[in-house]
Amino acid sequence: MIDVFDVLLGVAVLLGAAAALYGSRRIVGVMSFLVLGLLLTVLWARLGAPDIAIAEAAIASGVTGAFLLAAATDHPETSHEEGNVGRRTLMVLEAAIGVSAVTLVGVAAVSAARIAPADPLEVQASAAVADAVVDHPITAVLLDFRAYDTLLEIAVLAAAVVAALALLCDSRLTRVAWVTETRPVVLGFVRLIAPVVVMLAGWLLVAGSTRPGGAFQAGAMLTGVFLLLYLSGRARSMVTGKWLVPAALIGLAVFVAAGVGTFAAGREWLDVADGWGGVVVLLIEAALTVSIGAGLAALFIAGNPERA
Amino acid sequence: MANLLPVVVLLPLVGAILTSLTTHLGPRRLTPLISTVTTALVLAAGCAVAFQVGSSGPLMLVLGGWETPVAIALMSDGFSAAMLLMTAGVGLVVCVFASATPEITGGYWFWPLWLFLLAGLNAVYVSADLFNTYVALELLTVAAVALVALGGRAALLPALRYLLIAVLGSLLFLLGVALVYAETGTLATFGAAEETTGGLVLLVALGVMTLGLAIKVALFPLHSWLPPAHAGAPAAVSPLMSALVIKAAFFVLARMWINLSQGSAPTELAYVLGAVGSVAALWGAALALRQSKLKRVVAYSTVAQVGYFFLLFPLVIAGDGAASALAWEGALVFLFAHGLAKAAMFMAAGSFAHAHGTDELEQLRGAAARMPVASMSMAIAGVSLAGLPPTLAFVGKWQLLHASIESGQWWWIPVLLIGGLLTFAYTARVLRILLDTEDADDQQAKVEQGKFTTVRTDYHPIPQRMQYPALLLAVLTIVLGLRSIDLTELLQAGAAMGGL
């Protein structure tokens, strides 16, 4: 069912990726990356994967785009001399190695797909969704079947926030540069839009159990709100305040507590099924949303320390 | 008893949450205490797991009330139990060392980050799922990079380089996982091992995984990130990095090779790994001999020792039955011994650097007279690394030599012998400088003649707590060398699942 639009979309994605990689100026690269993210979102939607489309828009394109924009605009570009012979040889060599590696992996991937077993994990997981505590397959995989993976991923985020704080406080980058925004239009816009986005994040969170959505997408939306507040000179307590660590760790804490609680209640570790399962999952997801929102925003803001 | 497996991962996470809160909101003085107590509890859980594995074979636990392959399983065999013991044991000793003064930890955030690291390491050792292994490696990497960066402004660049390289390694591993999943349709490590048919897919999957993990283990020629990162880290972090962090990546590498490729392992690739490992062993030792700073000597020594670990692959994969089992045991005993000895060496080096304000070898001339305990630890750890009897590394090396003869791969023997000599050479060089009392005697004479009023002004005494932990681990390498039979028995307990 490939029509012209899909072909054009595929070509546009490749062109966008090439422009992002090989753009002559950094800002061009970043802009191409943002366009690429948008195209990918459409592509995922066309492939019937709205979950990934929302996540792509919020996390990959939104948050990562903000990071890249900040990096591209904060630091002046250094000019580098144009290629001599050695550099060019190296580039050809790199290209050759890259092309052969990609070819080899591609051939392996194709032959792997050909000998895929008749009853892959996907089929078994789909069959198990009927017994899971939530109806949506992706939420079921994330918080029921493979909850332990999600728990460790949240631990990664918590560790990253702690790492950023450690570098800010004890490695002596104690302060963060604050933006001061006085333009009334911007302030008014933030005041209007922030509650709307918070509400949308809440809806995405609750929707996650039955349709595309969930903690990761809602958390990324929340990050957007925090960044808006930061960029308009508010939310000063984001990095220096005492609420940051509790907010960034509450998701991990609730998750671990739920995992231990199921064992204490006489079931398997992280077995949230039966009775209260749906409520527990929603509780975990709500805590995760706060942690993801606060954590990602803190990482973004901690990346702008005041330079001595 | 299998129910203890999640404890070794969840307990450090609880500790990490608590210590993050005490560090951020206070009281800060509780942070080292909570962290040390948590590590001690994890060690106790590790001991219980090891005891159980040793007495009744591998443990297996499926999480979440589902069955594999839909759910994630945790597993501990002899190899994993031994690594759990070493991790928590070395960790506890380093905690005692680190609690001496905040200066050697790079600040109080060291403590929550160490617990995140411990959770990541243990998660790698008990994982029986390919994707879960990747996530555990990520947790480990984030914590490890942050710990290196605690070394201050000079450590920021090495830490950033380490981050980029480690993430590249993770992505390559993930690519391999994707290929294995595409072929077998399962993520369970042992399930996938039964399903693979070998051939091109397995070769490429194993190849990219090996490349990714070899980057993380710092195998020559992918090692250049390691010396600045390990030497630039705070004194309490370097022992963790060298003794524990690279072991996790090697653990995964060994597990992938032994399990995924039962019977159908690409032997040529195994020989290549052995050859590269041999070059690493000699090149790393040669560079260690040329360093002018003590911590860099120890860091290059790690590059050299990593080379020996890779002799595991040709000897186990290309060897037959008995030789293969000998090599497996030998390499793992050697891995264990390296963990203890390298932690002892880095702690001793850290205390020298802290006492003298520098780790320039020239500035440390005659330091043995001032710090006999740390010098003794350095000497014993060096002897252990070189593999002289009666240390634990000797047992491992002896078995590797034996396996080389058994399997007819005699060409690894000179590598093992020359490598040992070179290890002894750089240890002896360091010790000669530390023991060189000529300078001190000279000064003493001048003091007596009234020409100098003080002996050294740049040296300040350090707490006992910074010297004895290193000695403890160094002595342990000898004690365990005499009791190595217990360790090999524990390692054999995993034989049922290890495929050997």
Automatic annotation (TrEMBL), chain A:
Residues 12-75 form the MrpA C-terminal/MbhD domain. The keyword Chloroplast does not apply. It is a multi-pass membrane protein. It is found in: Cell membrane. It comes from the Bacteria. Residues 189-273 form the Na+/H+ antiporter MnhB subunit-related protein domain. It holds the Pfam family MbhD. InterPro entries: CPA3_antiporter_subunitB, MnhB, MrpA_C/MbhD. Signal peptide: none annotated. The chain crosses the membrane at residues 6-23, 30-47, 53-72, 92-113, 151-169, 189-208, 214-231, 243-264, 276-302. Keywords: Cell membrane, Membrane, Transmembrane, Transmembrane helix. GO terms for cellular component: plasma membrane. Belongs to the CPA3 antiporters (TC 2.A.63) subunit B family. This is DUF4040 domain-containing protein. The lineage of its organism: Bacteria, Bacillati, Actinomycetota, Actinomycetes, Mycobacteriales.
Automatic annotation (TrEMBL), chain B:
GO terms for biological process: ATP synthesis coupled electron transport. The keyword Transmembrane applies. The keyword Nucleus does not apply. Residues 127-423 form the NADH:quinone oxidoreductase/Mrp antiporter transmembrane domain. Belongs to the CPA3 antiporters (TC 2.A.63) subunit D family. This is Formate hydrogenlyase subunit 3/multisubunit Na+/H+ antiporter, MnhD subunit. The chain crosses the membrane at residues 32-51, 81-101, 108-125, 131-150, 162-181, 201-222, 234-258, 270-290, 297-319, 331-355, 367-389, 409-428. It holds the Pfam family Proton_antipo_M. Its main location: membrane. It is a multi-pass membrane protein. One of its GO terms (cellular component) is plasma membrane. Keywords: Cell membrane, Lyase, Membrane, Transmembrane, Transmembrane helix. GO terms for molecular function: lyase activity; NADH dehydrogenase (ubiquinone) activity. It is found in: Cell membrane; Membrane. It comes from the Bacteria.
